[in-house]
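Exercise (ungraded).
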Amino acid sequence: MLYPNKIKKESKSNISYANRGMDLEYLINEANKYYLDNDIAVIYKKPTPIQINKVSFAKGMPEVVKGKFNQKSTLDYVGLYKGKYLDFDAKKTLNKTSFPLENIHSHQIKHIERIIKHGGIAFLLIEICGELYYFPGEKLIDFIRLEKRKSIPYNYIKEHGYMIKYSYCPVIDYLKIIEQLYFKKERD
Amino acid sequence: MLYPNKIKKESKSNISYANRGMDLEYLINEANKYYLDNDIAVIYKKPTPIQINKVSFAKGMPEVVKGKFNQKSTLDYVGLYKGKYLDFDAKKTLNKTSFPLENIHSHQIKHIERIIKHGGIAFLLIEICGELYYFPGEKLIDFIRLEKRKSIPYNYIKEHGYMIKYSYCPVIDYLKIIEQLYFKKERD
């Protein structure tokens, strides 16, 4: 059982819920399951790309016995909300002053640019200082183009991103931000 | 080098291009690469879902040494075209009179229903009798709901689907159908 107020309080005192075994990926999956079960959106995590080099049939069912992790060329999550294509990634940093860009590969940035160009919504969910931000892909592209810095300062994220307040069921209701940004009305 | 006329001729005489090592998946990937390179759309194949049970670090780089193939709960391809969310699967049958529905799992049908409900475009690319059809998800749902049959007759596919004529670069330009169905103007 989760108590949102408690989580909020803890996050303020810098004890992240991640320490309690509730990491960002878990909470996103929980939110996506909530959206699916309640017929709000269809959003899912893309499988990890694995280059299968050897398959065994020894146990009746095919089984991968040799596989290489391939580098991702897209983002982790893809989905559909009210006719809009969503594509995003979740990133967490323990750094308290900035978010290092080294975690985002150049082909992922190219992917974000393409998604925006073709009318989709691309964004990052950034966990920093015990807070969670919706950071628009457009702002990321702008920052990289204009700033030429290796990390995004916390204050920049605070200013250009949108804080996701922890709530109850789902704990991180990130579609609320998309609703406000793209559909201009509150869902509840 | 591909000669579309030759391929068309051959397909008519029931010698599928699949026999020449150009299977449907290859041609879809080729089309998707063309769309990406020419900045027309962003469409990609989802990685095969593999449940990783054991990873070895013996060779320096992490390597999967035990992995199970999970059943797909979505379709094979996902993408974005002119702001529209696309989700589709490619199916081929050697059966000349009908397309057996046993190849589509019930959770994939549920997925198609959800995509349509939330404003996305879901469809199948069906290769049958040496011809390729764009078969709308709506027609598939209708057929399953109304007909209660175990396979879709070839004539039904011909009547309710849209034949994709083989062309040159890409060989199967399936976005042409989407353009006609959803944007009501010819792209070329």
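Further reading is listed at the end of the chapter. For now, observe: The domain at 4-183 of chain A is CATH 3.40.1350.10 (Trna Endonuclease; Chain: A, domain 1). Confidence is low (pLDDT under 50) at residues 1-21 of chain A.
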